[in-house]
Amino acid sequence: MRKEKSLRFFVTFWFIVASLIPLLILGAVSHFFIKSQLEKNIDRQSRILARLIAQDLSKLFSTQEQLLAIVKNDLESGVIPESRFQEYVSSFKLDETVFESILLLDNNGEVKFICPFRKEFIGIDFSNYDFFKKVKESRESLWSDAFISPFSGNSSIALGVWSKPVIIVGIIDLNKLSERMSKFEAEKDVYIIVTDSRGVIIAAHEKDIVAQRMSVKNLPMIAEALKGNCGVFEYKSNGIEYIGCAENIPEIGWLSVVIQPEDVALASLFRFNVFFFAFLGGTILIIIIVSLVAPRNLLRLIQDLKLQIANIASGKYEPVEKSVKFKAREFNELLNDVTNMAKAIRDREQSIEEAKRDWEMTFDSVPDMIFLLKEDGTIFRANTAAADFLGCSIQELIGKKCYEVVHGTAEHPPNCPHMLSQRTGQVESAEMELSDGKYVQVTCSPIRGRDNEILGTVHVARDVTDRKKLESEIIRSKNLLENLFENSTEAIGVVDRHGRFMKINRRTEEIFGYSRHELIGQKFDTLYADKKELEELLSILRTKKIVREKEVRMIVKSGELVPMETSISLLY
């Protein structure tokens, strides 16, 4: 047999559990709160840094576009002739821009002028560059994707401005963009890059990455940002989780991206977890020590309470002497409550017993026969009236079937109210004739259990033999009166208070020639020929309540006036 755990074990165990749960909840809440705040701060800082870079580059590129737009306007307006383009552009301080070179291409894509001037590059053909074709076809200002510059051999990008019939091109060495990004300070292990519209890195703190023209378009956050879904992203690459933010540079469709490993970003959270678990370990040790000592007095108090309950069970209600020296107000209150509860239970049991006696007295005082029946009709309670009616004792009825003692049959009679009530769940009633010729009115109500299931019925039977005999006498008297009315040798009619025929006998049909259908509902005064005679009759009726054998003239169906003798009396 499995050994039961002691109360000390349960008290110690649950004391430890109750003490640790708040700490664990606090730790979990703190962990998630700190993590949430760190993630928000990282997201905000990454977004701000990415936006600053995007804004700076957007401003830079906008400035370069404005510069080439000025050159275009001056060429188209004739401020400078095309032949002086070299001299005109040389007046610009390219060092103050990010342009490595500014070119003028003819309609065939060949270099006509270059600044700073380098003779060996005059005549280079750019017609096979997709960028040249797009600018020529769209006749708009366009930025190119990254390419290897034929002038410097470095990764570069170009801005092309169409000016009929030539194209002005500014070439930017991407190393200058990487140097420009160095002014944006970032924490250790935070990577800042700029990609073109194809996802190729064109600027970064590490220039080697730019020189390799590395493509990062397959990174989830870059792929989403290139689709226009910029913002903060979390992704996993090579088993390392990263947090990053990408912002769009609207003028050219490039991306400024800030990326850092999640473990680096959440390093402070890791330090908090180390501290918390160290604190939790020490706290658990203290709780275990306290839990082994603290319950001792509590267990003594419980033993006192157990003794008090045992005394109450044996009928002793005096408080037990406490085995602990210190006062425990809550325990005394609990002990008093237990004592008061026991007294209340005793008083309630007495009340229940008295109510039971009152119910039994009322049950036996009812003049109707009452059975309490089980589902199969077995009697499990009967009153004195039932025993007296059946000529036996109550004990002789208990355990027998109701149909055996009442009907003297081996099964329930047809239309048995007991069986019908169990099927319908409603109160059912029926008038039944017993084997000795007596009649009873039986009413059965379902007895329901706690789950509303039907357990049996309350069977109430009232002796209605005398009423049945009276009803038979009334029916015989009614039939006799009906026979006398119908077969009378005189015409008899019954009218309502409005003077309309309600009923007539056969002799009325014979004398007046009308059928019952024709006269029923018609006013009786239509049969009187002389209205004065009718008024005289009604006057006598009002005063004397009866008219006896008055001769009047009446009209039959054929229209003939026939003298007749009439009598009228009020029924109600």
CATH class of the largest domain: Alpha Beta
Q: What's the number of structural domains?
A: 5
CATH H-tier superfamily of the largest domain? PAS domain
Give the helix proportion (percent range).
Answer: 40-55%
Descriptors for this entry?
572 residues, alpha+beta, Beta-Lactamase, 5 domains, 6-stranded antiparallel beta sheet, 5-stranded antiparallel beta sheet, 18 helices, 20 strands, 46% helix
Description:
By secondary structure, this protein is α+β, with helices and mostly antiparallel strands. The chain folds into five domains: 1-181 and 268-293, 2-Layer Sandwich (Beta-Lactamase), CATH 3.30.450.20; 182-267, PAS domain (Beta-Lactamase, 2-Layer Sandwich), CATH 3.30.450.20; 296-348; 366-468, PAS domain (Beta-Lactamase, 2-Layer Sandwich); 488-569, PAS domain (Beta-Lactamase), CATH 3.30.450. It is built from 18 helices and 20 strands. It has helices at 7-77, 85-90, 130-138, 174-181, 207-211, 220-226, 262-265, 267-293, 295-313, 329-365, 384-390, 394-397, 402-406, 417-424, 465-487, 506-512, 516-519, 531-544, and strands at 99-105, 111-115, 142-143, 147-148, 155-163, 166-173, 191-195, 201-204, 231-237, 240-249, 254-261, 369-374, 379-382, 428-433, 439-448, 454-463, 493-495, 501-504, 546-555, 561-569. Strand 12 (369-374) and strand 13 (379-382) form a beta hairpin. Helix 1 (7-77) packs antiparallel against helix 8 (267-293). The protein starts with 6 loop residues before the first helix and ends with a strand.
